[in-house]
Amino acid sequence: MRYWLWLIGALALFASAATAQVRLKDLVEFDGVRGNDLIGYGLVVGLDGTGDGIRNAPFTEDIMTNILERLGVNVTGEQSRPRNVAAVLVTATLPPFARTGSRVDVTVSAIGDAGSLFGGTLVMTPLNGADGQIYAVAQGSVIAGGVAARGDAAQVVEGVPTSGSIPGGARVEREVDFALASLPRVRLALRQADFTTALRIEQVINGYFGRGVAAMQDSGTVVLDVASTRASSAAHALSQIENLVVAPGTRARVVIDQRSGTIVMGEDVRISRVAVAQGGLTLRVEETPQAIQPNPFSPGETVVVPRTDATITPEPGVGLAEVPGGTSLAQVVAGLNALGVGPRDMIDILNTINAAGALHADLVVR
């Protein structure tokens, strides 16, 4: 039995050598080993007149008043109109197994009408998790993501000056309880659910240990029995398998980004034999106004008479072109390129081929 398990694992490794090999850690998420999103509401001070307008963002004044009162400054009944403060949302991700005192990067984004966060400093801001508990506290100088300059009649903006980051700007104050070492089994969750990939992961892991320690549960889950690996803990078992390589099985897919005109095709995309006719119209409008003047020394005034010449010319195109049935990605690309069209027209052609049922792939339009 052990020999057959080893042989299956060896054959899986040999087959994956012919295609792209990906580390197991890049294909799956280990159950429980995950980050947690944090969010907080704070104040950035020290801006050079680019902060919130208090009249347009009254919440900025509220939080500023609360901070000053916590510091023992009584501002009740006072009306302040500073332009050097801005209300911000602070976001961060608490990494797995983060310990008290460790540092976390944070992102700061203005929520009022502040013009720029350049040169500002984030005042101490608690960061809460989804359960409402405070897990970290953020503070520090903001590194703005852009710059803005304006004058009386014009302005220029480079990047996004109303958003910035603070590397290591939050300190962890509370840990997330998760006992990985005591888990008897660990589930491996595939990032892209696929039965073929899950089976290959099972075979590669069992082939590595020489016995049945992993079992495919469904297309998105493989269960690892920690005790059967004879590792001292789940962490030790994961460290042994996370660098194993697997050839993932993916669905045939064509991804189209209409905004940029980008087309990406997977290796397994196939097209049945079809005939495609593609062409367009060229509209040309020429304006040649003519000035008509009265005779010399005669009464009258100069009149401009509009003259417009509009023509519509059909483009020659390539007529009705045949796209042969593709047995490989190279043949599919060669057949589409034979039409001699640009990326924008190619998007319409792929949509039409898919509507005709000749595109054997998932068409994803973004």
Automatic annotation (TrEMBL):
Keywords: Bacterial flagellum, Cell projection, Cilium, Flagellum, Periplasm, Signal. It is found in: Bacterial flagellum basal body. It comes from the Bacteria. InterPro entries: Flag_FlgI. The keyword Transit peptide does not apply. Belongs to the FlgI family. Assembles around the rod to form the L-ring and probably protects the motor/basal body from shearing forces during rotation. This is Flagellar P-ring protein. It comes from Pararhodobacter zhoushanensis. The gene is flgI.
